[in-house]
Each structure stands twice: as structure tokens, then as C-alpha cells.
Amino acid sequence: MSLPKKTFSCFKYALENYDFKYLFKCDDDTFVVPERLLHLSEPKDIVSNSWLNQLSGGAGYFLSRDCVQRVVNECQIKMPAVWAEDLMVQEILTERFHMEIRMTPEFHWGTDGAWPDPDNARITIHYADYVIMEACEHLLYGSNLATCKVMVDGKKDIKNCCFYKSDVTGRVMYVVNSTKYRGVCSLDHAGALILEYDEVIKEKADNGETKKRKEHHLIRLVPTGDGYWEDDRYGPLGIVTPLAPEVFLQNDLPAKQESDIVTA
């Protein structure tokens, strides 16, 4: 069954079985903060994110019951010939009924690290696998081992870094508000923090085909003595602000063997 038909069936079922004022739809790889969704400021008939100035079924959209009913009624007459359900909903509501979409950055689409956290009002982040979902959970609800700020690639843009014990893997993980800078961490015997992650590299072959390969990285952060950690070979993470090694030692962070440590 296509996405438009699945969405039509879902909307029809909701109308027949629930007495609701609004319906929220998003993809299953989207992290949602329910309490923020319930207190969405100034809800309108249609609320979506501002990606490409259109509805995003990934990041999510908010529809009034009247909108849901219109979509179901129109699909029963003639379903739009589109492959994506968000395009179907948009075509019906904006082109057939000339309704206006209220765009909001609170439903976020993308992998730029703009996650929901205590410092913003963001409600969703789309393209979130279990690593990002766990990190958002820990950032929002305070169950992380430690949270700090990092400077990525030596640039001035400071981002959140979250270290947490994964409920899925059982290992200590870290994420730096980006799908690229994430992985597992450990302490070596010298007290340096070892961060590991896999980077997916896309390369074009001679025949024009694009191939992907994984490149494993180890970054060694050493304490500077003034409460900071510094990359001793200038990797993706520049300077990490105050982070006590005791935080990890008290939370069963596995120690790295000397033979596993890679330095510049």
C-alpha cells in the first residue's frame, strides 16, 4: 500500500474512532516532545515546518479535525496522483480549498543538529535514529552522564555534546548535535578521553557509480589542566568545555587498552 493510501486509511480510522480536535502526523524516524506538542502556540488548521515552504510528513504536521475530514472526503472522490502523503495533503488543502499553512521551525527537518533541547522550543527532529533519539531524551530529561559544549572543526559555532549510557547498547555514547559526530567513548590509562565514530564516505567509481565506504576515526582529547579538554591532533572536535573524568569513571566507562589508542 502506498503512503498516500496508508495516510488516507489512518485519517479515516481516526475520524471514525476518536473525538479529537487536532491530529499530528510524523514519520517513525522522528523524535517528538509530546508536552511541547500539546502546548503548541497558536494552533491553526494546518501547522507544519518551513522546509522548502511545504508540508513535511517527516518532521510532522498538525491538522484540525476539519482538515482531516476534507482530506478523507476528497480522497474518496479522487486521490491526488502523487507518491508522497504530505504532497497529497498539501494539494488537497492548499490547491483545492486554498487553505493557508502556518509554517514553524518548531517541527524540524534535517541533520544540522537543531534538536529539541532545554535551550529551545523545538518540538520534533526528523531523520533521528536510536542514537539521536536517546541523546535527545537524555538532553531534555536530565538523565545524561554529562553535557558540555564543543567547538566543531575549530569553528566558532558552539554545539551541545551529550554523553550518556545507551539503553540499547549498554555502552557510553556521545553525540555532538550532528549525525556525523557521534559514537562511543572511553578513557585511556593516561586519563585522556577517546571518542570513536564511523564516517560514511561517498566516492565515484570510474564507471560513474557512487560507492559508500566507512572510515573509522579515533579522536583523543587530553585534559588541559584548566578544566578543558583539547584534541591533541586537531580532529573534528576542537575544544570541549569543562567535563570531569570522574563522571565517566563513576559510571562504568570502559577503559581503553594502550594497544588500541591511536595518536597523530
- Alpha-beta classification: alpha+beta
Distance between the termini: 52 Å
- Total domain modules: 2
Note the beta-strand portion: 25-35%
Task: Provide the helix percentage.
Answer: 10-25%
Q: Which parts are unreliable, with pLDDT below 50 for 5 consecutive residues or more?
A: 254-264
Helices and strands, in order, run as: HEEHEEHHEEEHEEEEEEEEH
The number of helices is: 6
Adjacency order of strands in the biggest sheet: 8-9-10-11-12-13-14-15
Mean pLDDT: 80
**Shape label:** elongated
Largest sheet: 8 strands, antiparallel, barrel
List the keywords.
single chain; 264 residues; alpha+beta; Spore Coat Polysaccharide Biosynthesis Protein SpsA, Chain A; 2 domains; eight-stranded antiparallel barrel; four-stranded mixed sheet; 6 helices; 15 strands; 23% helix
Concise synopsis of the structure shown:
By secondary structure, the chain is α+β, with helices and mostly antiparallel strands. It has 6 helices and 15 strands. It folds into 2 domains: 3-108, Spore Coat Polysaccharide Biosynthesis Protein SpsA, Chain A, CATH 3.90.550.50; 130-260, no CATH class.
Topology:
Layout: H1 3-17, E1 22-25, E2 30-32, H2 34-38, E3 46-48, E4 61-64, H3 65-77, H4 85-96, E5 102-103, E6 107-109, E7 124-126, H5 130-141, E8 146-152, E9 158-165, E10 172-175, E11 182-187, E12 193-204, E13 210-223, E14 229-231, E15 237-240, H6 245-249
Parallel strand pairs: 3-5, 6-7
Antiparallel strand pairs: 1-4, 2-7, 3-4, 8-9, 8-15, 9-10, 10-11, 11-12, 12-13, 13-14, 14-15
Helix pairs in contact: 1-3, 1-4
